[in-house]
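Hi V.,

Quick status before I head out on leave. The structure for the redesign project is tokenized and pasted below; the design run finished overnight.
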């Protein structure tokens, strides 16, 4: 197979890689797009539970509040290509979009396949793009004299040359889709610093065993607070969560993980407290408990707990509170009532870590932003080397923020200098 000379080589055909390829090719650059898997965009096709929350319509200032690491780094790429430009791109490629709760943008069909096809079909027919699948890059090639990028060497020892190489290999999350950290290794081999990587937007693991009856049980309209041993708050958010076989998951837990994953992986002791009655202050709830206990004095505690808790939580409450389940309510003393109050306002769980990368939506950490030009995504260490997407030390909350980062950094990396 004889390939045309390349202006740009792009490693990885995920969301960032495909967008970078189209950006470069549309500007007249000759692009070689290399994907090690047999099919591109595997992670893109499963994102958002197969619905693909591709961006968020929040204004820039609010959007950046949801980004971790140094969110100022993104101002340049967002000024070039932000949420409205991304929405215009897909609608121009035949994908109607819908804005849902929380300003989340989805394809109107509810199918991530439509987003994938809007990227891959133009790539496969673009005269300026050569697309190779099952093409795994082994290493970046850097000239010994100028220390600038000159191409790549493949696993099969074949080499391709180009004046520009974009690394868009993703992170470590969902490794079955091909995100196995190749880009981190390549960057490090040519001198880049890596910020330690940890799973993010991922379920949390608890020290206490989770009763079988709670696994899969969903709690709605609760508040999750995570704090250090001294009581200092690291995170607090109200919403929905669920229990897993060894911990907690769900929307507010995933959001929490972006804040607490790194401290947990560094061995910090953290406690999660679940407020089951966030709309009530301690004082108001205590008055309600006093009233309920007085008004239902002859009822058995085990049965009466349904006044304050869902049935699935009652066994855990009785075990934690150490109150006799067949005690009548008029026999519950003041100390026991206070323990019940504290349980309702903050069921405690000791956090010991997170689930691993196969369950993490994104990777936190990556190529240090200090070594990358925020206007172009070019390496400050190796001229001609660019980065886009999750391989960078950029991550954000759920809600379309991470895909927008991938697309915006890809457009910056793919654009002509």
């Amino acid at each position: 197979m004889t390939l045309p000379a390349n202006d740009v080589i792009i490693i990885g055909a995920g969301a960032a890689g495909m967008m970078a390829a189209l950006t470069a090719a549309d500007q007249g650059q000759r692009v070689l797009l290399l994907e090690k898997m047999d099919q591109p965009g595997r992670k893109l096709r499963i994102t958002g539970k197969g619905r693909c929350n591709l961006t968020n319509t929040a204004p820039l200032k609010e959007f950046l509040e949801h980004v971790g690491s140094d969110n100022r780094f993104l101002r340049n790429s967002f000024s070039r290509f932000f949420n409205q430009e991304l929405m215009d791109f897909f609608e121009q490629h035949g994908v109607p979009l819908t804005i849902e709760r929380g300003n989340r943008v989805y394809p109107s069909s509810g199918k991530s396949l439509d987003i994938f096809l809007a990227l891959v079909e133009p790539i496969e027919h673009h005269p300026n793009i050569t697309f190779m699948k099952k093409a795994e890059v082994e290493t970046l090639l850097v000239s010994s004299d100028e220390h600038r990028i000159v191409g790549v060497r493949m696993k099969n020892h074949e080499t391709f040359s180009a004046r520009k190489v974009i690394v868009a290999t993703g992170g470590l999350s969902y490794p079955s889709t091909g995100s196995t950290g190749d880009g981190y290794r390549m960057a490090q081999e040519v001198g880049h610093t890596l910020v330690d990587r940890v799973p993010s937007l991922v379920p949390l693991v608890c020290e206490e065993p989770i009763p079988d009856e709670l696994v899969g049980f969903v709690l709605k309209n609760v508040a999750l607070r995570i704090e250090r041993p001294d009581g200092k708050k690291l995170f607090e958010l109200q919403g929905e969560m669920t229990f897993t076989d060894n911990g907690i998951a769900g929307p507010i837990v995933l959001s929490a993980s972006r804040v607490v994953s790194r401290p947990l992986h560094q061995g910090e002791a953290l406690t999660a407290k679940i407020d089951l009655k966030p709309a009530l202050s301690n004082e108001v709830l205590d008055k309600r408990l006093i009233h309920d206990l007085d008004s239902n004095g002859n009822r058995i505690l085990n049965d009466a707990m349904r006044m304050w808790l869902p049935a699935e939580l009652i066994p855990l409450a009785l075990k934690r509170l150490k109150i006799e389940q067949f005690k009548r309510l008029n026999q519950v003393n003041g100390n026991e009532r206070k323990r019940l109050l504290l349980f309702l306002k903050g069921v405690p769980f000791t956090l010991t870590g997170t689930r691993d990368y196969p369950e993490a939506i994104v990777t936190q950490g990556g190529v240090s932003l200090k070594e990358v030009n925020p206007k172009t995504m070019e390496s400050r260490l190796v001229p001609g080397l660019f980065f886009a997407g999750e391989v960078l030390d950029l991550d954000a909350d759920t809600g379309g923020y991470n895909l927008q980062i991938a697309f915006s950094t890809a457009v910056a990396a793919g654009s002509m200098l």
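Above is the designed sequence. DSSP finds 13 helices and 19 strands in the chain.

G. will cover questions while I'm gone.

Best,
W.
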